[in-house]
């Protein structure tokens, strides 16, 4: 890799570190190509990406970035998983690490906040952005359906009473 290619990689990594909601660092020693492709596919489905880069270039790209605290984690065969959604990358990596013992989560960063392996696990346990939006919409919609049910209930009760009275008179 010549100098121009290295500069391009450092620039790309810098943009990743700037724009990502979360960056997770894991060691992938022993993972086969098929297993790595499966991880990439799961991450892509969740709206994130996986990147393997030289640790030295990643450390250069981290200089001056909000998540520069993860530079200490970049030792050995490391992989970077990132996403704009602050939960997606952590959730996918944590789930994949449960399935495959060769992937070991080292830590990560959420903006300026450094995360250890337990922190990444805690972030992975949080609901995703879509789940939070769905629960908020459900909470907003629930009172309206309760009001409609309360308004409609007396009318149905009156109709039931009237039909009962009609049956009695007919008998």
Shape verdict: elongated
Major pleated sheet: 5 strands, antiparallel
**How many strands in all?**
5
In whole angstroms, the N-to-C terminal distance is: 97 Å
CATH hierarchy: architecture of the largest domain? 2-Layer Sandwich
Q: What integer value in Å does the Rg equal?
A: 26 Å
| CATH topological fold name of the largest domain | Alpha-Beta Plaits
Order of helices and strands: HEHEHEHEEHH
Sheet-strand content, in percent, reads 15-25%
Describe the structure in your own words:
The protein has 171 residues and is of the alpha+beta class. It has two domains: 3-126, 2-Layer Sandwich (Alpha-Beta Plaits); 127-171. Helices cover 59% and strands 16% of the residues. It contains six helices and five strands. The protein has helices at residues 3-19, 33-45, 55-62, 88-99, 117-125, 129-170; strands spanning 22-27, 48-51, 78-83, 104-110, 113-116. A five-stranded antiparallel beta sheet has the order 2-3-1-4-5. Strand 4 (104-110) and strand 5 (113-116) form a beta hairpin. Helix 1 packs across helix 3. The longest helix is centred in the last third of the chain and has 42 residues, at 129-170. The protein starts with a helix and ends with a helix. The mean pLDDT is 84.
